[in-house]
Amino acid sequence: MLTSVPQADLHPIFDRVLDRSVKEARLRQRGRVLWLYGLSGSGKSTLAVALERRLHAEGFTTHLLDGDNVRTGLNRDLGFSDADRTENLRRVAEVAKLFAQAGVIVIAAFITPLRAHRQLARDIVGTEDFVEIYVAASFAACAARDPKGLYAKAQAGNIAQFTGRNSAFEPPTAGDGALTLDTEAEPAAASLARLHAAVVPRLQL
Predict the structure, then answer these.
(1) How confident is residue 92, by pLDDT bands cut at 50, 70 and 90?
(2) Where do the domains of the chain lie, and which CATH numbers do they carry?
(3) Helix 82-101 and helix 115-125, axial crossing angle in degrees, nearest 10
(4) pTM of the full structure
């Protein structure tokens, strides 16, 4: 039978939230948010899944966030207006921040079309924990791939405000500090290798 412990009997240390460094030490890694963005069909989800599998095989603790697991639950009340897209990303960034503070490596894959969106995510997560990764491919290349049939629907007029067509997408500037992976110019395996090499030093204690 459980009994309560008088507050006076508790050591003062128990009044403090468990420190992040303790959690990172247990996991033997640094909590980070790896934010992959680019046009639909650019390959960001493919790279995100492949990176998570590789990191997991190497003993890292990770969690993947993307539209499939966020918009069916946490953000199912949001549409695709400019305001809703901003709110979607704000919520994702807040969740990613909580995971990172627990020492978990978050891999987030979202279109994140505007520089203001990326800055919002960076401000919420914190510059030290935020790793910006641009998955680059031209609109034509993404339309040719069209893995979810979205470009065909947009061409038929069935999707309003389609990013890159009638809704703006702003690539990063030189000063943004983003790692750029050009999936149109190199095979996915090469992009994954460069991504892995770039992020692992940021994840190690």
Answers:
(1) very high
(2) 20-202 (3.40.50.300)
(3) 30
(4) 0.88
